[in-house]
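Your task:
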Amino acid sequence: MTASSSVQQAREALGKRLREIRKDSGLTARELAARAGWHESKCSRIENGRTGPSDDDLRVWTLHCGAQEQTADLIATARNIDGAYVEWRRLERSGLRRAQESVLPVWERTRHFRAYSSWLIPGPLQTRAYIEALLRAIRDRRALPDDLDEAVQVRVDKQRILHEGPRRFAVLLEESVLRHGIGGATAMAGQLGHLLSIATLPNVSLGVIPLGADRTALWPVEDFWIFDHSQVNVELVSAFLTITQPHEIGMYARTFADLADLAVYGAPARALITAAIDSLG
């Protein structure tokens, strides 16, 4: 199953719903296509989730099936599906700042954050130097418009949520994250020292999964954030994935709990961070 499978499943579920609406109207797929002025295969592609319907497609579908009272809900459902899988090139077409700002609403309303990372220190725990090095590399690799300073400031400003309101943060890092050099030795030393400081906050639980942990049952997975019980965000190589299906959120929650069992906390975690600092020389 690919990381975007939830989007395909949602499209198939919408297609099934549209098939039921068509059948309830007494129309065959060929008859509906003829009335709508479509190629006769279009109904089949939509009903099987191979083609996502546009707003106009849904208006025409419900019009000819006598189900116009469902139009608004169907359009909202389709738009949510389209927004679940967003390619970076679409999200970042005007620069990095927009991508940083796009997640602010969910961050503002969330009270319980769970984050797992196998590659990078998570955003709220990053230093300015680490953020700048990271975003500069993304800008250059993807040849994006240069709004680096603004994007860095948005991410820095977002870190206020660590100190505002009754928010709880549970963060799990693979030990390898502590060794991935971002921004050079000086930036990494500052970042790891900052991590030690953040770990002392009463609303932050920081776990580190040692390199020597037994991974027979559960190996490293893609980086993800769980926001309360309502949403999971996953950063892929090509896209930003938003998961809202309850059963999939449950899968990530169980994976997080299993990963948490592999981690060390408190003094053992601090020892791993300190060892990473020492390795910088």
In short: The chain has a mean pLDDT of 92. The longest strand covers residues 168-174.
